[in-house]
Amino acid sequence: MKILLIFPNPAKTLPSFIVKFLSIFSNPIIPAFKALTNITPEKHSIDIIDERIENIDYDEDCDLIGISVMTNQAPKAYTISDEFRKRGKKVVLGGWHPSALPEEAKQHADSIVIGEAEEIWPQLLRDIEKDSLKQIYRQEKPVNLSILPNLGNGRIKQKGINSAVAIEATRGCPHGCNFCAISHSPGRRLFRVRPIEQVINEIKKIPQKYILFSDASLTINTNYTKELFKNMKELGKKFYCYGNANVLFKDEELLKLAQEAGCISWTIGFESISQKSLDSIGKKTNVADQYISVINKIHDFGMNVEGSFMFGFDADTPDIFDSTLDFICKSDIDKAEFHILTPFPGTPLFDELEKQNRILIKDWSKYDGKNVVYRPMHLTADDLMNGIQKMYNGFYNPSNILRMIGRNVKKGLFPLITTTSISFQGLTYTNKKRM
Ligand code: B12
Ligand code: SF4
Asked: For domain 2-138, which CATH number applies: 3.40.50, 3.40.30, 3.30.950, 1.20.58?
C-alpha cells in the first residue's frame, strides 16, 4: 500500500513565508510520524507531507491517508480529510484531538485511532488489506514501551532540513495538572520508561547531533534519568528536554549528569509566578519562591532555561503581566513562551469551564494558546490579548535578543537558529489580526 502521512498547517499565527522559511531550515522530525513509520511493515511505502512547508496534492496516488491532529489542527485536518474522502480515498485520523473527541473526529474519517498507536497501527493496516477497516480503534491499556523499535530515524523521509530528532525515553506524566492534555489523554497518566539500552541504541543510530526529548518530564523518575544521562555521556550528542522546577531545584547530581550528557537546555513549565494560581491548577511541582534559584542552579551547570508561562487563571488579576515581566527580566532566563490559558478538550479545566458556561469559542483552530476561548474571571479577553503582546514585546526587546543570541552562538548552529527564530517571533508578535 502507498501511505501518506499528513501534518496539517493550522490557522496561521505567522505569515506563511516565515513558517516555510523556518521549517525548511530547521524542521525536526515529527515524532508521531517517526513512531508510525517505524512500525509500518516494509512492504508498504510511506510519504510524509508537512503542510507547513509543502502543499497537498489531493489527487496523489495513494491507498491510505493518516493525519495527525492536535486540537488547533482539527478544523484543517477535517477539511483535508473531507477533500480526500470526496475523491474516494481512505482517511485515518489519530493523535491528541481525535483521542479526546472521538465522536466528532469520526464524522470526518473512515477510521480513528484513540490513544497510542504502536500496537493498533499494524492491526489497522492488516484490516485495510482485508477490506475490514473498523471505524474506531482504541488502545485499551497504555503501550508497553519496550516494544518500540530501535530504528533511529528508520526510513522516515520528511522534507526540509531535519536538523534535530525527537526521541522518547519515557512517556506520560502522573502529576495531573488540571489544564494539561498530557496527563488527561488516554493512557498518558501512567508514567512509563523505555529500557535504557534501547534508548541508547536508538540514539546511536541517529546521525543528527541535536536531540529533542519529547518526554513530558525527565524529572519524574530521577534514578532512571540519571542512569540514562550516564549512558549518554560518551555519545557526543546535544539535547533539549523538559523538567519540573521542584526537582531541578534540589537535585544537583541530576544537573551535573545532564550537563555531562550534553544537555543544552531545560524547558520548565513555570506557568505562573503567582502561587495562588499554581495552587488553583494543581501544579504541585511548582513553588514560585524557588524559581530564581532553579534558574541560577541550571545556569551554574552551563545549561539554558526556557520557561513556559500561562495567563488567564482564575486567580490572575491585571497586574500579573507587569509582575511576571519584572520577574523574568530580572531572572536572566534564556527564552520564554507566553500562552493564554487554553482548556483543551479532555482536561478537567475544559469540563469545569463548560459546566460554568464559560467556554465561548469552540472553533478549535483558536486553541493554540494565543487566543481567548473562555470567559476569564478577573480579566477581560482584551486584557489577556494585550497582556501577552506586552510580555512578548517586553521580553524580546533588542538588547535581550542580543543577549540570548550571544549566549547561544557558541552552543552550535541549531541552538542559534532556534533562538534567533523564537526571538524573531517574539519581536514580531502581534495580536492585531486575532482581535
Ligand atoms: C513535540 C511536540 C510538538 C511538536 C510536534 C507536534 C506533534 N504533534 O508531533 C511541535 C513543536 C510542532 C508542537 C507544537 C505545538 N504544540 Co506540541 N507538543 C509536543 C510534545 C512535547 C511531544 C509530543 C510527541 O511527539 N510525543 C511522542 C509521540 C510519539 O506521541 P504522539 O505525538 O502523541 O503520537 C502518538 C499518538 O498520539 C498517535 N498519533 C499521533 N498522530 C497520529 C496520526 C495517526 C494517523 C495515527 C494512526 C496515530 C497518531 O500515535 C503516536 C504513537 O503512539 C507534546 C507534549 C508531550 N510530552 O507529549 C506537546 C503537545 C502535543 N503540544 C501541544 C500544543 C498545544 C502545541 C501547540 C498548539 C502550541 C502550544 N501551546 O504548545 C503547538 C502548535 C503547533 C502547530 N502546528 O500549530 C499539546 C496538545 C494538546 C492538544 N489537545 O492539542 C501537547 C500535548 C502539550 C500539552 N501539555 O498540552 N508540539
Ligand atoms: S507536570 Fe507538566 S506534564 Fe505533568 S501534568 Fe503537570 S503540566 Fe502536564
From this structure: 3.40.50
